[in-house]
Sequence to fold (222 residues):
Amino acid sequence: MEREIIQTLDGSTTIHIKEWKECYHSKHGAIQEAKHVFIKNGLALLPNKQVSILEIGLGTGLNAFITYLESKDLNQNIDYVGVEAYPISADELVAMNYVSELNALESKAVFDKMHQANWEEKIIVTETFSLTKRKQFFEEIDDVEKFDLIYFDAFGYRVQPELWSTAIFKRMFEALKPNGILVTYAARGVVKRSMIEVGFTVEKLAGPPGKREMFRARKGDF
Fold:
C-alpha cells in the first residue's frame, strides 16, 4: 500500500496510508495524542516503579521514545516490549521529526539506538530503560501475566476490525499482570463489549485533541 509522510496539527509527523485513509497517529497531533492517551492515562498512574510495558503497534517508535522521556520525571525503570508485524522503512524513520518537536536533542542517541536495535533481542537502552522489539502478528502474542501496562495502538477498527476482536483482547488480558492496565485511543461500543467479554473492567475517558473519548481497561476493579 502506498504511504506518505504528513505533518499533523501539532507539528509532529506521521505516516499516512493512502488506500485506507488511515494514519499511524492522530492527524490532530501525533505527540499530543501519545502524551494524552498513553502517558497521562497510562504511564503516569505508575510513578516510582519498575514498569513492564507491551506496545501493540510499535510503528514509528513515538510512544516508546516519549515513554523514555517521561519515565525520567516519573522515576520509573521501564522494560518495554514493542510488537510490530510490518516495521517502517529507514527512509520513513529519517522523516520523523520527534526528537526536534519534543525538544529532546540531548536524547537523539536514545531514539537512534531504539531503531537500530535488532529485532527479537532485548537491549539496554539506558540504565533505566530496556527495549525488546518483536516482529510478530498480534494474534501470536502468548505472554502470561508479564506486563503492568499495555499501549493498544493498532490501526483503527474501521480498517482492521479483526485487531479489536475478543480473541485479541483475550490475549491482552492474559498478558497483563493482575490489576494491569490497557489504554487505547479507541472508544467504539463494539470495542468496549469485546473488552468486557474477556474480563476487563472498562472506563471511558476524555479523548486527546480531535477525539471526544477513549478507553482505559483494567484486569481487575478500578
About this structure: The first strand starts at residue 3 and ends at 7. Residues 30-218 form a domain with the Rossmann fold fold (CATH 3.40.50.150).
